[in-house]
Amino acid sequence: MLFPPLVLGLPWMVWIYKALVLLVIACPCALVVSTPVTVVSGLAAAAKAGILIKGGIYLEEGRKLKSLALDKTGTITQGKPLVTDVSVLSGEKGRALQLAAALAGRSDHPVSGAVSAFWKIESSGESILQVSNVAAIIGRGVKGEIGGQQYYLGNHRLVEELKICTPDTETALGKLEADGKTVVIICNDKTPLAVIGVADTVRETSRQAIQELHELGIHTIMLTGDNELTAKAIAKNVGIDDARGNLLPEDKLAAVTEELSRFGTVGMVGDGINDAPALAKASIGFAMGAAGTDTALETADVALMDDDLRKIPQFVRLSRRTAAILKQNIALALGIKLAFLVMAVMGLATLWMAVFADMGASLLVVFNGLRLVRKVK
Question: For 100-133, how does the pLDDT look when each residue is reduced to its tens digit (9 = 90+)?
């Protein structure tokens, strides 16, 4: 506005008008509004689909996902196991089940729930034994005192650490584990009393979800505290690339850290307290919203409200679509501004054109971003 009239002696009104045109065109409204409108639209679309995302950063990160780690019980499987086998190793079957049910009643693990439910059917109305000094053994099971004696209900690892794993116990465990079943042992600190086999059905949606993830180019790995044989059997059943069993919470954390170093952006899906460290470490943590514990939901970045694993490939597709529309919006905002900027310098743009370049571009990016609110596929 000042230079041409003062230095070159050109008309003031012409250059004041051109300066006003340039000032309106230079307004960054469209560029500024393009990102939040697109991201909020993506978050709203995800919420409509039953995917609750704790912030736009996770929606934007989803498109970069290269690997996904999944827990087994309650994630890939229904989390509603049933007792299928009871192999007595010492004493009577009824007494072993009574002790197991007493300890299982003090745990919130799905396998414990199966043992408690089985005892109610088998007991014919007998009362549950009283347990004192109950303590969870992370990644292994639970212990407590019954009638003044210490008892344990846990997995294969627990019996080995107690150094009471007999050849008969190994035989019973091996048979059930080879069938892809989860196995728990009721024992005291001297001898195993019974081996209990529990089967959990795979979710109907798990196979389709894994297939869709592979189609999106995402590597899958299952991390579970169950034995290795069960882990591999379930993984083969649903088509997962890799499976690791007998994992404690710190082992799951280490596995996710390894995946991060290999792939860069890694997701973790879980529903229990044991999954919390891995959920926190992953680039994006996914919690099963209905079956998940409070700890898992609090730690995770995304909650799947109906426990449907197909929501994860849906989330990834939405993230990629959001990124594409975001790029379109930035290109629209900058492209329109640049075109009118050149026209303004050449003296071809009028003030009403400048207003169109400003407000028109803003409206364009808003409407383009709102396309995400439509049904997510």
Answer: 999 998 887 788 888 988 888 887 777 788 889 8
What are 191-248's pLDDT values in tens digits? 999 999 988 888 888 999 999 999 999 999 999 888 788 888 889 889 999 999 888 8
pLDDT at 292: 66
Of the candidates 71, 251, 301, 358, the residue annotated as catalytic is: 71
Check residues 337 and 367 and name the one with the higher pLDDT. Answer: 367
Closest CA to 184 of 109, 256, 80, 280: 109
Q: Which residue has the higher pLDDT, 177 or 54?
A: 54
Domains of the chain with bracketed CATH: 3-38+318-373 (no CATH), 51-77+203-305 (3.40.50.1000), 82-199 (3.40.1110.10)
Is 71 known to be catalytic? yes
